[in-house]
Amino acid sequence: MAKFKRILLKLSGESLMGEQKYGIDEKRLGEYAQQIKEIHDMGVQIGIVIGGGNIFRGLSGANKGFDRVKGDQMGMLATVINSLGLSSALGAIGVKARVLTAVRMEPIGEFYSKWKAIDAMEQGEVVIMSAGTGNPFFTTDTGSSLRGIEIEAEVMLKGTRVDGIYTADPEKDPTATKFTDITYDEVLARNLRVMDLTATCMCKENNLPIYVFNMDIVGNLKKVMEGEEIGTLVHN
Hints:
Layout: E1 6-11, H1 26-40, E2 45-50, H2 58-63, H3 68-92, E3 97-101, E4 110-111, H4 114-122, E5 126-130, H5 140-150, E6 155-160, E7 165-166, E8 178-179, E9 181-183, H6 184-190, H7 197-205, E10 210-214, H8 220-225, E11 232-235
Parallel strand pairs: 1-2, 1-6, 2-5, 3-4, 3-5, 6-10, 9-11
Antiparallel strand pairs: 7-8, 10-11
Helix pairs in contact: 1-3, 5-7
């Protein structure tokens, strides 16, 4: 039995680079698709939001002279590219997936609505929600919080390159210790950058727990769904 019936899976765009310095690593994409298939086969209803940092990050573009709005729009399009890649990889292994976009761009993807997403998940499709919120100045973290709340997910699973939340950056501070669970209030008080402030506050206010884990280790997504404590739970 899966621990959750309906989830919002937030995937990092940077992680899709795998061993590369840019773009999509086909091996990593295939591993992600296989992990998603494993929990899909358990009967889990899956909504997915992917970042676009492997292709373009609006905020860093703004620092290099891009207009912030145009930079964020480029970032939104990067998430659509990643979403199409993941839907293709899922289709190749027999999992039906649908790409919804927050900005109209048929026939690339269907225009997002909550009810369309829920209906597709209930029919057994994996729903990939792209283009962020459709607005500039919002990150894909905020986009995933919004979509997770809208689709009435029980939890947001935040697949990252680290195995949870630490007291400090474990790559920089060898004394950093890991939390098995932590409250939103403590995350905010300690200024831990689990997600950006807007996203964190949205999850707190709408009582959507976040589970942070390392998605890059094959098999971890299934372990989370089976209830193994391999990451950090953030809750009220």
